[in-house]
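hey so i finally got around to running both of the ones u sent me last week. sorry it took forever, my laptop kept dying halfway thru and i had to restart like 3 times lol. anyway pasting them below in the order u listed, first the sequence line then the structure token line for each. didnt double check formatting much so if smth looks off just lmk and ill redo it

first one:
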Amino acid sequence: MNFTHPIKTAIRQKGWRKASGSVVCLLAAALSLSAGQQPTATLGSAGVQEQAQDSSSPVTPLAKLVTEAQQSNPRVIAALRSWQAAAQVPSQVSTLPDPEIRVQHVSAGTPVPFDSFNSIQMTYLGVGVSQDFPYPGKLHLRGEVAGRKAASLHDQVESIRRAVAEQVKVTYYHLSYIQKTLEILAHDKSLLDQIEKIAEARYRVGRGNQQDVLKAQLQITKLLRDTTEYREQRSSLEARLKELVNRPQDSANITAETLTETPLPFSSDDLLSLVRTGNPEVSAEQQKVRGKSLGVELARKDFYPDFNVQYMWQKTGAPFPDRYSVSFGIKIPIYHSRRQQPELAQAAAQLNQSRRDYEAMVQQTYFDVKDQYLAADADAKVLKIYRQGLIPQAAATFQAGLAAYQSGQQDFQTLLASFLDVLNLDTEYWRTLTNHETALARLESLTGVALP
């Protein structure tokens, strides 16, 4: 809707007294469009350009970006490769050491190889094999420790996936807020243009003053400044989304959907009960505790000896019989005070540290869940106040101010202030809605719940 032509025609043809009623009605009608939960902007030329710029790129659903990020984000891929590498370790460390094959030649009577092979019995060629055997249970424990580490890395993969998804959601919500704010600013500027023309018309007929016109122009300039800043923020948020989903920066622009309020069907206690089971970071710390506990058992096993078995076949010359030998060795850990005992103390200290880290992680996550739940719950209540109280009341105040200004019972500054209240409350509504959705995204990441 364009108010410029009707106002100019009314002022030119009928004078200010007859035109003022039409202007007030037009502004009141335009204002009513901004008083709802999701106001539809009535744009002037700047708003039309803004809408044309936004409509040049199709709306990208949030779910598509989240899926794309979880599949293509370099951090997610790196974490996945780290887990895949760690998953190969348990079988390596739980397998016996490689056997050793030995070839031995003994020459008696002469240093020349095989010179006395058929004449002296002590000259022979031997082939043997030896195998080390760790104390029973050591290999299994080493495999278990490596398996817990791999399990911890697997939980970290899920943690990074959720973190990336949360970053995508939060950035997307802020992008939607910036887009909506730009629409509101365009709407704001369009209506302020009309108010400026009203003030100018009153000034020309001697019913107003030049200061009113200058105040309106000043406010329009501020809106142009804010619009420039918000456009820069929009470009920055789009660049951030492209980085998260691993798209080229010169790819097509990303346009977010309009935000809607998501209900929270869970209580605080419901969400807190999911911390130990539904949070991958907590699960990763729990796997570390189990791994450190197995490490203590492994350190105790190191107090026991390892073994070695060797077998050798010795080939002599034709006149002499072949010989066979079997040997059994034991590695005795005699340096307990310098090796095994410090190793056990180190493992016990690491286990104690890991337990404290786990409890600290649980308590921090409890706090984060409670904090985000309270924020989301408070924002939901505030949004209801905006919809049912603040925005309608501000709209009614402005409409009453229009009538008072028309009759000369209210000054221009009061009218302008009440008008800006409506538009500022509209912006605050969308900012609160963005904060509400951001808190829910954080709760999804912390607990693993899926919100509609």
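and the second one:
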Amino acid sequence: MLKNMEKFPNDFVWGTSTSSYQIEGAHLADGKGPSIWDTFTQIPGKVANGETGNTAADHYHKFKEDVALMAQMGLKNYHLSIAWSRVQPLGRGDANPKGIQFYSDLIDELIKNGITPWINLYHWDIPTALQLETDGFLNPDIADYFADYAELCFKNFGDRIKNWMTFNEPWVFSILCYGHGVLAPGRVSNTEPYIVGHNILRSHGKAVDVYRRNYQKEQNGKIGIINNCDWREPLSDSVEDKAAAQRSLEFFLGWFADPIYLGDYPDIMKNNVGDRLPKFTEEDKKLIKGSSDFFGINHYSTALAENAEVNKKYEVNVYDNGCLFEDERVVLHADPTWKKTEMGWNIVPEGLNNLLHWIDKRYDHPEIYITENGVATTDEIIEGEINDQTRIDFLKGYFSAAHQAIEEGVNLKGYFVWSFMDNFEWALGYEKRFGLHHIDFETGKRTPKKSAGWFKKVIASNSI
């Protein structure tokens, strides 16, 4: 039996992830200002079943119970996000002492239970006031507002936080929020996603500069950014389809990683997007290049990439994680033998291995953390138990692919499962369950799923 065990390096980091709006609830409690998600969910038709994150899993009031569940499953690392409008309701100016206190208490509770907090500063929930008053990430001034907010967090929590992330999935925020309009603030444009992406990178650069100049030496922490990317395999051996797969990866991941690791946007983006792609100033480039101490990556799926002919009509599904079709010119397909998740995403563990190698090669062997990977499944409570074997099988396959990448020389240092608990899945409401813990959204009751017990063994043995 031991021969079949895949052992991870001794210092490998295992954890779970969540985000503030998806679990906290208490949407206007204790001085919190509304975020664009509080506002967006009030518009009829924007979210499945008219659901909101107003209460969600009520983590704001139940965080001690949740941390106890984390301790019970032997969790050593927990990746969470801070709600900007909870600690700074207007997105600038005065802090909200009760919001600061909540995160301080949560951090203390985690540490008391032997759990290391990893903090992400932005998971798509800009304060509504900042959005309405300044146009949010469409305004270049956002870089200064974000850096000030980041400093507020470094000041209040940095004595205990050793791992910071500035942004989660800027690709999603740019494309699905400003291109396709399916997520808050719900804008549709072929220009705004590139402006937003540009200002996210500038905001990231400024926040990292503040941390490195004023806090890093004393607080002894690391700071980075979290990108997301699905793998792209060419549909055929044709030169065109191979180029399409590479182009898709550069539009997806290169868009945000190239400026940080290579100094500018990919050439293919400059060529295809033209004047709609903003240009970095020399000052921007100085702040952005080299501004990540590690490579955070969220990964969920794989697709086959076909080169799109210019004059041909194609149907595009925004939830397939395609960029702006007119610019990328890639059609995505699935191998009919691939199994799919409840989200309709393809289950292809070797895609993760391929992506890790692509990152390793293109960005010169960075230290990588998988900051999200998980699966939505149909979870039924039968006699008080949830046998989510599908989730266990999914994670087993992806963990194995990650282990293989390490064996092959990729510098992968950690793996965070999405998600610790069931939560509000954005425009899809509460129908899609990603959690290792089941949440009854009517009563707030928490029930560990079979996968939580299985993951506990993985963490304890550091192996699968």
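quick thing i noticed on the 2nd:
The chain has a mean pLDDT of 96.
anyway thats it, ttyl
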